[in-house]
Amino acid sequence: YHHPLGQSRLIPDMQSVALRYTGPVNDQRLSRAVTAVLGERFERMAPLHGADSRRLYIRGLNGGAGLETVLTALRALPGIRQVMPVFKRGNVRFTVTERFIVRFYPGTASAEINRINRDNGVEKVRQIAADTWLLAAREMDGLRAAGLYGNLGAVQWAQPNVIYLDHSIFNSNDTYYASQWAHKNTGQTVANGAADGYPQTVQGFADADMDVDEAWTAMQNQGIQPGEGILIGVIDSGIELAHPDLKSRIADPGRDFTPDNQKDGNDIQGHGTAVAGVLAAEADNGLGVAGIAPYARLLPVKINSSWGSADDAGIAEAIDYAWQFGSDVLTNSWSGTDYSQVIADALNRAKTQGRGGKGCVIVFSSGNEGHGTVSFPARLSDVIAVGASNMFDEKKNQGSRDFNRKWGGNYGAELDLVAPTLVYTTDLVGQAGFDAGDYKDTFGGTSAACPHVSATAALILSVDPALTSDQVQEILQASADKIDRYMIDAAGWNKHVGYGRVNALQAVQKALGLDGDAPSFQFDKPLSGTDTGDRSLTVNIRDESGMDEALLFYRTTYRGQVSGWKSSGPLSVSGSAYSFSIPGQQWETMVEYYFFGRDKTGREVTFPIGGDSKTAPPLPIVYHVAELNSRSYASADVPVSWENANTFYSSTLDIKDDFSIVDVNATVDISGQIQDFAVALEAPSGVAAGILQLNPGTAYSNTTTDDEAKTPITDGADPYAGSFQPDNAQWVFDGERSAGSWKLTVYDDIYFNNGGSIKNWSLELTAMKDNPVPVVSDIPGQTIDEGGSFTSIDLNAYVSDGNHADSEISWSYSGNTDLLVSIDANNLATVSPPSANWSGSETITFTASDPGAATDSDAALFTVNAQNDPPVVSDIPDQTIAEGQSFATIALDDYVSDPDNSDAEMNWTYSGNSALTVSISAQRVATITVPDSNWNGAETITFTASDPGGLSDSDGASFTVTAVNDAPVVSDISDQTIAEGQSFATIALDDYVSDPDNSDAEMNWTYSGNSALTVSISAQRVATVTVPDSNWNGAET
Fold this sequence. Notes:
By secondary structure, this protein is mainly beta. It folds into 8 domains: 1-90, Alpha-Beta Plaits, CATH 3.30.70; 98-167, 2-Layer Sandwich (Alpha-Beta Plaits), CATH 3.30.70; 184-512, Rossmann fold (3-Layer(aba) Sandwich), CATH 3.40.50; 530-625, Immunoglobulin-like; 630-768, Galactose-binding domain-like (Jelly Rolls, Sandwich), CATH 2.60.120.260; 775-865, Immunoglobulins (Immunoglobulin-like, Sandwich), CATH 2.60.40.10; 872-962, Immunoglobulin-like (Sandwich), CATH 2.60.40; 969-1026, no CATH class. The strands form 18 sheets. The chain has a 7-stranded antiparallel beta sheet. A 7-stranded parallel beta sheet has the order 16-17-15-19-20-21-22, with helices on both faces.
């Protein structure tokens, strides 16, 4: 049939039909009448949706002809108003009657509506909302009537009033507070609701919880009681009004929107009571359990009848009633209906008009099929879609560690959050509920998860009632913990757990205006493979307050030897991008790693979740460094077939080979209504994955589940031939051991009651290939004399490797200081002394590495014996100075080299000098001295260095003194005094002059200073001083 978003295909369940009587049904009379026309094909009768309707279970309806024959026969019975098939969609069973729902365009006159109804033989039942009516057709069923009205110009939309059967839309210091692991998980032992044959209790991971106790403390420190002032509308099967742990929290008896027509919303079925206990069971009253928002008030809104049915019109009216009554939060632990415009419209009114226009916070469970399609109405944008998590902080699935293999939470593009399931809560008092007693210890499904989010929304609103519904949702998403090991996108979301598992403490802190988010880590996981180099990881770490510290932790396992955890900081940081590196590893190594972050407010978190800066999380991420090979194993325990039974069917596969698993692919052939089948793969250790979950169709034909496949199974189509990503990741098996009994288990929900068969199945297990370590030995040492050469070494001769050729081995060396080493492409090593005169010993270690970085080494000693080489003396420089100067001293150490002896051991001598004087100090500094300051000339002096062994070498240098013309020295010419008339004595000037460079005869004399006296100098340099006359007297110089 058509609806505003498209069309839905109606598939009869071929097991039952729906019958509507003209008045209340007399079961005995009807049973006799049906038996009369159908005989033994009539199996049994069950309530449907009111006193005037019944559901008849009939054998042999297979095929359209058989169904039509039965429908025709039943319609002919007296008193029958209508007979319709029961339809199926997933695990939901539904039917229609003559009733349908129509929304007329606003402004359509009442007279026009009445005319349309009169012309089509339709009458009004009641008005549901503005312009929206529940109508009943006299001569046709609701499907045809809705189709007819949908084509009328005055009609905005029309749909049948679908009736949902079998409760199938429900996703199913106090005494038991210590067992409320979702509030505070210490790893305590809790029930899990597992089937027989599985452990009945588990111990989860410590702190895999919502921090509810800490949230209460944070609120009470601000004078706020958790949930006070907030009304939660519980749209469900009602609430047991007299329950001792709930009655004080009931704001109003509520209403019944089912054909039961109770005067209130009292619960006689139990589902809504269980939801209510999670929400707001009274705290600190010495009874049972404590709700997450124990001071919130509850409004029971009953949509599920005592017959286990609900209809679109009643649901829509219930939603309108809840928000119009004043509910702040609408909690809906149900889903799985087909698209219904009347429900979508009611939810939109609650979202846009509730809480005075701020909008009700509307929370829905995502569904329990475990597949990748979020159910309606949870997939609507007006609501918060909630999947399920367990006490191990995993996405709840048919293979998760809680061992409850019956169901898993739906996931997909519209999933917003996950929350705890399999929890303690309230039950109908006494024997009437799920369990004997007043409480249930394993309330499950996304029904249990949904109220955890609703109650946290109530905590947020009790902190800040002014928040809009969108702001509440933003807080819930930003404050959620990133659980499990699925990678997130830049917004912090993935399709398996949405934005994460709800955290009450962090949500409250954000509502209080404090830091309420933890660092998130977005990155691409390194892949297993042969790369032995460093693995670079660029991680986008986001936190509203900014990061204080970020670390990468890793450890390795090589052939059973486990290293300790090592940490490293980022190599670089650019904005939110942190670059880390894990050192390269050799083949046969498993690497485990996780990230740690602390923000600027001190909030710490790891990814995967559950660790800290000193303790690793329980489930780190794994990759392998190795050559990989795949090994195939097929089950011989086939076929495994079944008829109709709501139980588990298993086929085993025994594997004797024992190795660490790198990757698992499963291939299955399963026939039957696979949309009924939850298929899980379980390793010998008990670790499992729900690989194929209630996907539509009738067969898996040669279907391979592979984490690395490009197409999700959700995007496949019957019979799913080929490779697909599984519904839940198979990397849970990475690092597990292969040996033992594997199980492929199918849980048949029997909604289709036709059985099935595991025809064949096999596993492809990827393992690390053994990589024998190369063995290096007996590389010989060598000894040569100084000046000789070492023999080249063919390294191939000294290594053995079980699986690699010599050409695949790479060599390196270490330990040498002076010796030179080279290794060519043929692995020929050459060792050379640094010079012809070098002597000494060095140990060189040669290391062989195979392609997998496995290594072995061997050391060899290389010795060069010393030889006494003569010293070499050279380049002593010549010197030339001017007469009267001094020669520079000569540091003889600078002009000698001896490879065997030090400078101090040299003995120096000299020869060749005549006039020049030579001395050599103890520091081997030579001094050359001229005989006097006026000496000039040249001499060659030979310097000889002798080593202690008597070997010597010499070098000559020329020492030259150039002549200089010195000035003559005139002195001591005597003064003379005579009497007037006498004569001065002559002066022999040669007696008063000296010149080292010239003779007396070469002197040229002159005079000055006389005035009256007359001077003459003869050729023989005799001076005569004469007075002018005999009477002259006086003195002149």
